[in-house]
Amino acid sequence: MITMITMTTMTTLPDLDTLRAMTARFAPVSVAADLATLDAPERRVLATLVDAVRVMDDLYLEQVWAGNRAMLARLREDRTALGQARLRYFLINKGPWSRLDHDRPFLPDAPPKSGGAGFYPADATKDEVAAWLSSPEGEAGRGFFTTIRRDAAGRLMTVPYSVEYRDTLEELARRLRDAAALTRQPSLAHFLRLRADAFLSDDYHASDVAWMEIDASIEPTIGPYEVYEDGWFNAKAAFEAFITVRDEHETQRLADFGRHLQMLEDHLPVDPQHRNPRLGALAPIRVVNLVFAAGEGNRGVQTAAFNLPNDERVIREHGAKRVMLRNVQQAKFQHVLLPIAGRALAPGDRGRVSFDAFFAHILLHELMHGLGPHDIRVAGRETTVRQELKETYSAIEEAKADIAAQWALEFLTDRGFIDAAVAREGPATVLASMFRSLRFGINEAHGRGVAIQLNFLLQEGAVRVETDGTFSVEPSRLRDAVTALTKEILTLQAEGDYSRARAMIARLGMIRPEMQRVLDRLDDVPVDIEPRFATAQALVTAEQMWGPPFLARFSWRAGGPKAG
Ligand code: ZN
């Protein structure tokens, strides 16, 4: 029996049984990738990368909380059953706070989690840092790749990542250069060398561009990227790595999608002055299978797809790349989404849940992140949506990507670019997926973004609650509701309207009793997966066991998801 642990039922630290129940919300799943397209030398590159990026876990632990690494070392020494259960849950959460339970501490000696994580001084308040950042001295501290510390006199100061995390980053850079020397794929080697430089210079621009241009069987994403962990300002980038191999067949199949982007932008349901007449040139979509993830890329709820880089300057000049982690999505669909659909949806909608629709929605979600307002002008000032919306930015942007994805699905289906069957299955699949996301909690950007949408759709009659408590889609009202919410969000983003963003979250960003009743029925359905990186483990073990000269003789058994 898996139990959703709530603030009210858990007033003390969880005991062994409770901790096991909390952990069981993550179904252990073997994550494997087919390496058939890689010859022996490239497999060695892959093994080198997997081994190299394991340090991302250390870096990320430190970014979450300065006390994390010492706490982990203590946990590793505790051989009791409770100690081992604590260690496992700590590794899932990358810290002593349960991310699914409003960051509630589950270990003794864990202080309340700071909203600013480990990016700011432990004794600083949000107001103090905000005041300093808006002063002239704080200007250098506003970037993605700096921490804020105190100098000897106790004044706030800026420390670049290359200084803050110097030893680890130097080692990582050295390993990336090793991998670059091994690979025979020039665009991959180019990225690895430039990214190694960036870790030491804090200038990620050139390597972000090189990452956009990787055309290789191995597709690595390694760097400080997402800003979710910085709950104060969504300003500081957390370290993560995804080592993946390209799914050539699926990538080819989706190549067309990138060509529709300008057309989607030109028809966005928003005042035409807020549309971008010329999107960035590059919008590659890569379908990949995950071999190994580390740092923020492997904590709590697993990433199914991403859209990077986040740097608006790169997006403006080069667009953004969408990476779809297909084997991760298949695992989530199988182990989480299908069981949820069976309980949350009305019987008529259950049969309309499909992997293709799930995949299409995730793809469109990522594509829509790149559309709509990013660089904006507020009261004559050049600024960005991210800057103006501050801590509301992530939830609003996630809601935008989701609801605009539903809008885009209908738009593209109307024009014959998407299979009608996928479009028919879309709404029910997305509705089931909303309950999947709500379980992440509304203190997390995706969960809160979904609460906004579901409340809006209920209010507009586009989603109904049946007498048995299940939810169903009302197709006749869906299109108007989806368009209206897409327009409302795009407009508040274009205007950089922080107070309307706050009002929207206050009005719609909560879990209503009808939703909670469905969530309560999902108690024994896993919330997400806990990946076991089978391919990565085999690769690194082989590298260690056989060494380079013997590697070519090693017989690889690739357990790809299609085999399973
Ligand atoms: Zn997103």
Keywords:
50% helix; 564 residues; disordered C terminus; alpha+beta; disordered N terminus; two-stranded parallel ribbon; binds zinc ion; five-stranded mixed beta sheet
What's the quick description here?
Helix content is 50%, strand content 13%.
Report on the architecture of this protein:
Strands 6-7-8-10-9 form a 5-stranded mixed β-sheet. Strands 1-15 form a two-stranded parallel ribbon. The chain is built from 24 helices and 15 strands. β4 (146-150) and β5 (156-160) form a beta hairpin. It is globular and about 60 Å long. It has helices spanning 16-23, 40-52, 55-64, 68-77, 81-93, 126-133, 161-164, 166-182, 186-201, 205-212, 248-254, 261-266, 312-318, 326-344, 347-350, 355-369, 385-389, 393-414, 420-438, 445-459, 475-494, 498-508, 513-521, 534-551; strands at residues 26-31, 97-98, 104-105, 146-150, 156-160, 218-224, 239-246, 285-295, 305-308, 321-325, 375-378, 381-384, 463-465, 471-473, 528-533. By secondary structure, it is α+β, with helices and mostly antiparallel strands. The structure holds zinc ion. Zinc ion binds next to α16 and α18.
Structural class: alpha+beta
Number of distinct beta strands = 15
Number of helices: 24
Which strand order spans the largest sheet, edge to edge or round the barrel? 6-7-8-10-9
Bound molecules: zinc ion
Rg: 23 Å
| Helix content percent band | 40-55%
Mean pLDDT: 91
Largest sheet: 5 strands, mixed
Proportion of β residues?
Answer: 5-15%
Shape: globular
Amino-to-carboxy terminus distance: 26 Å
**What ranges have pLDDT less than 50 throughout 5 or more consecutive residues?**
1-10, 548-564
